UniProtKB/TrEMBL annotation:
Name of the protein described by the UniProt record: Aminotransferase-like plant mobile domain-containing protein
Gene Ontology process terms (BP): meristem maintenance
Residues covered by the Aminotransferase-like plant mobile domain: 1-333
InterPro entries reported in the protein's UniProt record: AminoTfrase-like_pln_mobile (IPR019557), MAIN-like (IPR044824)
PANTHER family assigned to the protein according to its UniProt record, in alphabetical order: PROTEIN MAIN-LIKE 2 (PTHR46033), PROTEIN MAINTENANCE OF MERISTEMS-LIKE (PTHR46033:SF8)
Superkingdom assignment: Eukaryota
Length: 369
């Protein structure tokens, strides 16, 4: 319904700012969908072996000789493996051919907005996780960038759960530091600790806005963006992308494309802004619920949805974070959330009595895990 985590205080969700802080990817660049980039390098010209798709076999089939220059074929093959295994985490543990277009665009240094594609892929992954909980046969193995969700949770719960690590990050990036905070032992108790922590956020605190702090680790264009004397036109454009609603897409093939609204106005405190009532990104009567992209005419769909009525302008100014909420939002949230209130014991009881629990009622074909 909202594609957000509903904490007791209000909505919380990964945003483009979180993606930028964790991965170092900017929100700038061209939108990626299956038809937006042409095949400038023919697959037939590259010596890529398509009959060896498992990760190890694909690596062994395309690795070059030590000390020799990296060829275009080897670089594109590496990018395909990287996208499949490390970024989008394909369910088959193989390198599919449909990553070729994106790998080729990256090889040719096209300005692709990977951050929006990655965020939309996370939304798709969480959609599938939510849907799987309602299956009578139990959840299936999930694919997608769940690693991003774990790092985001580490950032939020770092202080509350006293997450520490003795490991040294491999690079100066927030995501590398957060990776070292992931609990090594995967226990049910850890899951219960995270859920209990979520339910304990009755008010918004700086813990829920971890990426606007002055001690942020990462690229200078992100760390210095709140210093008025250093603001550049590029950083203003970047913050316009962080704070403007948009349409983001996931999927490498037409039949797998999903379209999501990016609605940062629902998560204003995460940017250090006062939370007004989170109105929908377009009026209901302006949205055609039967929008279909089976024909691949994405430009027509985007033109229909993204009909800009006003140009968003930003004026640089001295900035101090504010986590206030308006009275309008508070009244609306109390009405919305009152029938959803749930304490941890009741939540745990629901889990234990569900068909997905090893302690609860048994159903055929359910997974013990």
């Amino acid at each position: 319904e909202t594609r957000a985590f509903e904490f007791p205080y209000g909505f919380v969700c990964p945003t483009l700012l979180d993606i930028a802080a964790i991965t170092g990817l900017t929100p700038l660049g061209d939108r990626f969908h299956p038809d937006v980039f042409e095949e400038e390098i023919s697959i037939k010209e590259l010596s890529i072996t398509w009959d060896k798709k498992t990760y190890l076999a694909f690596i062994n089939a395309h690795v070059g000789q030590p000390g020799t220059p990296v060829s275009p074929s080897e670089h594109i093959a590496f990018l395909m493996y990287w996208l499949s295994a490390c970024v989008f985490c394909t369910p088959s543990l193989q390198v599919p051919k449909y990553y070729f277009t994106l790998a080729q665009a990256l090889h040719l240094k096209k300005k692709v907005c990977l951050s929006k594609l990655l965020l939309a892929s996370l939304y798709t992954c969480l959609d599938e996780a939510s849907e799987s909980l309602f299956r009578e046969t139990g959840p299936r193995n999930l694919s997608g960038p769940l690693w991003l969700l774990q790092l985001w949770l580490n950032a939020i719960f770092e202080k509350k759960l006293s997450l520490t690590s003795t490991f040294t990050p491999t690079c100066e990036l927030e995501g590398a530091r957060l990776t070292t905070l992931t609990p090594r032992k995967r226990l049910v108790d850890n899951f219960a600790t995270y859920i209990d922590a979520i339910l304990s956020f009755t008010e918004f605190s700086e813990d829920l806005a971890p990426f606007i702090r002055p001690t942020l680790t990462g690229p200078s264009w992100l760390r210095q963006n709140n210093q008025v004397w250093n603001i550049t036109p590029a950083s203003i454009e970047m913050w316009a992308r962080f704070l403007s609603w948009d349409v983001i897409m996931s999927g490498m093939r037409q039949k797998e494309v999903r379209i999501y609204p990016y609605q940062p106005q629902m998560f204003a405190p995460q940017f250090g802004l006062c939370q007004m009532k989170p109105l929908p990104f377009r009026r209901k009567e302006s949205i055609d619920s039967d929008i279909c992209v089976d024909t691949g005419n994405y430009e027509e769909v985007l033109e229909f949805i993204l009909r800009l009525e006003k140009e968003l302008r930003f004026t640089p100014c001295r900035f101090s974070p504010s986590f206030l909420v308006s009275k309008c939002y508070l009244r609306w949230w109390c009405t919305y959330h009152m029938d959803k209130l749930l304490d941890f014991e009741a939540f745990l009881k629901k889990l234990n009595n569900s068909p997905l629990s090893s302690q609860g009622p048994k159903q055929s074909s359910t997974f013990k895990n």
